[in-house]
Specification:
The protein is of the alpha+beta class and about 210 residues long. About 30% of the residues lie in helices and about 30% in strands. The longest helix has 17 residues.
Length: about 210
């Protein structure tokens, strides 16, 4: 998840002309490609996913075998830039309303072993569980079955019982400044990957340093 990865899933019959919904999944190209190819996100061989992306910069397209393609993304961005320029606009101005957060960027923290990373995730969860809502996207059962789990004081976060070791904590609703952060275990090495994104830069720096201290 994390911040991990989201994709836009085509859904017919939405009000106000909106024809899609965002779906959270755990990170990992194998998981997202599998989901794009199976029900409910694919029917009769037709993929209903329009686009998928990972926070780390991987972009997936159904017309490219559900694989990620930096080249396709670059071409699409160049075309968009040309179209905006023809209208006397810029990409920067177009994307400005979407820039709600100040990003720390992905920070890698080494750990002695994979088990140590699990313990560190649990420690972060215990510290921040009361200041926001913990949630994570999980894939359960057969491929394509997706749900989001949320944890609070009555249902504590227990990473030892979860298949995908990742954690996302969102600020309480209407918090000022708003924020979210994610911490997850790297899939192939003993590292923790941290991303922090508040709506104020000073908050980002403070939270980044606090979480790293934990």
């Amino acid at each position: 998840m994390n911040t991990g990865l989201r994709f836009l899933h085509f859904v017919a019959g939405r009000p106000n002309g909106w024809q899609g919904e965002f779906v959270w999944t755990p990170v990992g190209h194998a998981k997202i490609k599998d989901l794009m190819r199976t029900a409910p996100y694919s029917e009769s061989g037709q993929c209903k996913v329009l686009f998928a992306a990972e926070h780390s910069g991987h972009y997936f397209y159904p017309d490219f075998y559900c694989a990620d393609s930096g080249t396709t993304t670059a071409v699409l961005m160049a075309r968009s830039a040309r179209q905006r320029k023809a209208k006397g606009e810029s990409l920067g101005r177009y994307f400005a309303p979407f820039g709600r957060y100040f990003a720390s960027g992905e920070i890698n923290v080494p750990a002695a072993t994979g088990q140590v990373t699990i313990e560190k995730i649990a420690r972060v969860a215990s510290v921040y569980a009361q200041s926001g809502c913990i949630r994570r996207g999980v894939v359960t059962g057969s491929a394509g079955v997706q749900r989001v789990q949320q944890f609070d004081a009555t249902q504590p976060y227990d990473p030892s019982n979860l298949a995908a070791l990742d954690l996302r904590v969102d600020s309480q609703p209407n918090a000022d400044p708003g924020w979210w952060f994610s911490v997850r275990k790297a899939g192939n090495e003993p590292l923790l990957r941290l991303n922090v994104e508040p709506t104020e830069e000073s908050c980002m720096k403070r939270m980044r340093d606090e979480i790293l201290q934990v």
